[in-house]
Amino acid sequence: MKTAIGDITSTRSSYRVTFVVLCLAVVAFALLQSLVTPVLPTIERELHATQTTVTWVLTAYLLSASIFTPILGRLGDMTGKKRMFVVALIALTVGSLLAAVATSLPIMIVARVIQGVGGGVLPLAFGIIRDEFPPHKVASAVGVIAALSAVGAGLGIVLAGPIVSLLSYRWLFLIPLIITALAAIATQILVPESRVTTPGKINWLTATLLSGWLVALLLAVSQAPSWGWRSAKVLVLVAVAVGIAVVWVIAESRSANPLIDMRMMRIRSVWTANLVALLLGVGMYASFGFLPQFLQTPAGYGYGFGASVTESGLMLLPLTIGMFVLGMYTSRLAERFGSKNVLAVGALIAAIGFFVVALMHSYKWDIYLATAIIGVGLGLAFSAMPNIVVAAVPAEQTGVASGMNANIRTIGGSLGAAVMASIVTVGASHSGVPQESGYTNGYLMLGSVCVLAAFAALLVPKLPGSETVLGRETSPEPRHGELAMTAGGTVVGGKAE
To answer: N or C, fewer C-beta in 10 Å, the chain?
Structure first.
């Protein structure tokens, strides 16, 4: 490791400037995750695709992000987090440009694969914060970035309708393109390069194995609603995914340069936080994918409000506001009550919101109430979770640990969307419109999953020391000649020993 996390010297950019740049990049990345979801029917018509094939616009992105997120996190730990952060932003920019000018579905899918490379933005942002920020500012900054990632995803649902109505669906990619390009330039100019790196190399065998089981698993769950959960294709893919995953774990355990350190993954704080991420990912992505569809169903079917894309987005606005507001205050709550308790309570609150959707959806105010409750719960949970992961690992493993946590949340989202689709479409009419009972059962399932997430959060061990310093005691930054503990050893006057 080159050096330790010490105090911020006068020769480096202000951490506040770095924080603004990171926020800009994370918001753009999060928007690209969700802007497309409500307007898939529009893209289907414009690119002359079918309902089955257009889902690859989402699936291709999830597959690519699942593969490249841990790889970029590891490369950032090895070669410099700023460098790989810029690479991720360039990938988002190039992919957005190609998507904006795509004239066919295959080109659009290639564009979304390129965008998926940018999935490394979130873990790299966490790593930069840990490297560059004063210790007593780290937890709150990580919490805000985590909240912004969830808020951006919700904001994409809200903004998609107005953008398509006023401009065209191509601006769903052009607007994030502008933001990511500006963020890449600002990062290169204003963000300092990491002082914390670790030597090593990418084990491409384990990277290939990781890619193999993720592709097989996500392909199976994403296509299961159309192929059938008991179809031979799905069963074979699941079997292949399990087999390759076992080989991958063995290879990673024996590797001198593991992409993901299996010893790190066995740390109780890490595996429990990852379990919670998986379960909450099921809830968040499934709700984003199916609640607009529910709201847009004509009331003549016995439920729904016949809302437009824009109107359904506005009905989800309380969710976005709740995630952002609570995410801003999570670090203070964690300091007082503990991150694990905030995580558990957040999951329970989200569960209540999903139960409200399932059992009370006759009036619009029911939906506003439910989405506000879900937003509060997810805002608390997703802002508390990264602190637990980052606190549990050495500084040089921040990128890969937080990257895997974000990756597992994405996998959870894919699983949740596939299972939700199977539940919602049971007994659908000949026109393809689901029955009300399908949505009721689906949201009861999501609420139950969030209850399980709350119980899983209780398994997280209490962090030693202050909750706001990621496992170290809260104290002012050391003056020259004083001692302070860092991830890499003792700092004397700002130099690691």
So the answer is: C
Could you read off the pLDDT of 28-77 as tens digits, one per residue? 888 887 788 777 777 878 888 776 677 778 778 877 887 788 788 788 87
CATH superfamily name and code, 15-202+259-496? MFS general substrate transporter like domains (1.20.1250.20)
How many Cβ atoms are within 10 Å of 165's Cβ, its own excluded? 11
Environment class of residue 256 by beta-carbon count within 10 Å: exposed (0-12), middle (13-18) or buried (19+)?
Answer: exposed
* H or E segment to which residue 162 belongs: helix 135-166
Cα–Cα distance measured from residue 284 to residue 281, given in angstroms and rounded to the nearest whole number: 5
- Report the SS3 class of residue 495: strand
Tens digit of each residue's pLDDT (9 = 90 or more) over 145-200: 877 777 777 788 788 888 888 888 899 899 989 999 999 999 999 888 877 677 77
The strand order across the sheet containing 495-496 reads 483-485, 490-492, 495-496
Neighbours of 306 (CB within 10 A): 13
